[in-house]
Amino acid sequence: MKKSILRGIFSMLIDPIDVQKKLKGIQAEYAEIRMSHGYSTTIHLSKKVVETCKVGTTTQGSVRVYNRGCWGFFAFNSLDMLDYALQQAQGLSNIQKKENAHSLSSLQTNVIKEQTKTLIPLHTVSLEDKMHILTEYNTILKDSQLVENTNVLYYDSMTKYVLCNTDGSVVEYDRSFCGLSLSAIAKDGTVIQPYGESEANYGGFEIVKDKHTMAEEVVRTVTELVVAPQVKSGVYNVIADPKLAGVFIHEAFGHLSEADFVYENPRMKEIMVIGKRFGPDILNVVDDGTLPYAGYIPCDDEGIMPAKTYLIKNGILHSRLHSRETAVKMGEEVTGNARAITASTSPIVRMTNTYIENGNSTVEELFEKLWNGIYVVGALGGQTNLEMFTFTPAYAYEIKKGKKTKKLRDCMLMGNVFVTLANIEAIANDCTLSGGLGGCGKQGQSPLPVASGGPHILINNVLIGGKGAGSRKTKSKKNSGNMR
User: Fold this and answer.
1) Alpha-carbon distance 221 to 371, whole Å?
2) Terminus-to-terminus CA distance in the chain, angstroms?
3) Quick one: 3-225 is in which CATH superfamily?
4) Closest to 123 measured CA to CA, from 160, 77, 171
5) Which DSSP helix (H) or strand (E) runs through 236?
6) Which of 59, 208, 271, 389 has its CA 20 to 30 A from that of 313?
7) pTM of the model as a whole
C-alpha cells in the first residue's frame, strides 16, 4: 500500500476539535463520541487451498449518552450521520429516567495522541509478499505424512481511532495490529491430534516475519503427540507452564473479576468480597493495560487511563475491574477497563493484560518439589461455568523424580477455581505474557485483543481427565500446598 493511500485512510475522520464542539450542545450527565476508519487484511490457507484472501476498509462510530440511569446509544457507519446519531442517542437517554439513579460525574480529562511504533510498517508490505511468506509457513506445516490438514491464519489492521467525551478528553490513536496463527492436525490410525501456536500484538509485519521455526515446532509437536500415550485419569499434583497459567487466570478468575458480572450475580457478590482470602501469600494477580502486549490500551473506550490493578494481592482479593458505571454502582475506584471491540459497539468491562506475578522460587525448585506428577503445557481450549472450569492443555509430560519423561496427550484439567487457587504450593520467577489471534469473547464482542501469562506454578490435587476412569493421587516431595 502506498503512503498516499495510508494518509488517506488516517485523514478520513472528522477533526477531533470539531467533534468536541458538537458535544457541548448535549444535555447529559455524560456523553461520548467514538469513531474509527481502518484498513485490514485477512488471509487463511489450508493444506490444499487458499480459503480466504480479503482486504477491505471500514468506517464506523457511535454516540453514547447517559442521563439519570439511562443510556442512549446509536451506532453509525457514515460520518455524515454524526449529527443524527447525537440527536438519537440523546433522545434515547431521556426515554426512561430511573429514580435514585447513580450519577456519572466527571472523572478525568485526558488528551492523548499516539501512534503504534512499528519496525516494518504494514503498508510497506505488499499482499503478494504477505502471501509468499505465509505459503512458506504452510509448506513447512505440511512436511509430514501424518499431517492431515493445516491452517495458516493471518490478520492485520491499521486503524485511526478518535474518542471525545464531555469530560473534555480527546483521544487520537493510530494503531497497527498484526497476528499469525499456525496449526496442524495429524492422524495416526484412529487418533486425530491438533496442535497450534499463535502470536499477535500491536506493531508491524515484524510480528509475523521469520516464524519458520514456529512452523517447524508445530509440525514436530503434532506428529509427536499423535503417537504419544494418553494421560491416565486421576488426581495429580501438577506444574502449569506460563501459557496455561495465564489462560487459567484469565478464564477462570479474570472473568469473575469483571464488575458487571459480579454486580449482576447475587451469588458471586457473596463470594467475591474484597478482603477475602483466595490463595497463599505468594499469589498476586494483576490486570495492566499499560504493558506492551496485545491487551495494551492508551486509554479505555470511556477515556479513562489504564493502570496496574491488583485483583489478588498477597493471596487476598484486592480489587476488581470497572467501567465508569460499575465503579459508581459498587462504590469502588474506576480502573480503565471499559472496552469495545469496535467503535460501533458499546463498551463493557473487559480485561487487558492479565497475569500472575513472579513468585520466589526457580523453575527447577518447582520440579524438585513436584517430584512425581504431571507438567501441563499450553492450551487448546476450555470452558467455565461460574467458579467451575475445564481446560485442555496442548500436551503434558509425566514427571518422575523431578524430571520430564514421556510426552502425553488428551489431558483435561477440571475443578473449582477457588479450590485450585488455594492449592497453589509454589510460584516460579519466570513470568511471561503472550497474546494470540483468538483474543477474548464476551457478550458477542470477539475477538478482543488481550494477553495473559504468568510464571510456572505448582498446584496440588488437580483432577485430570484422560484415559480410564480410575483415580490416582500423587504426592509432592514436600507437600505443603493447601492454604493455611
Assistant:
1) 25
2) 60
3) PmbA/TldD superfamily (3.30.2290.10)
4) 160
5) strand 234-240
6) 389
7) 0.92
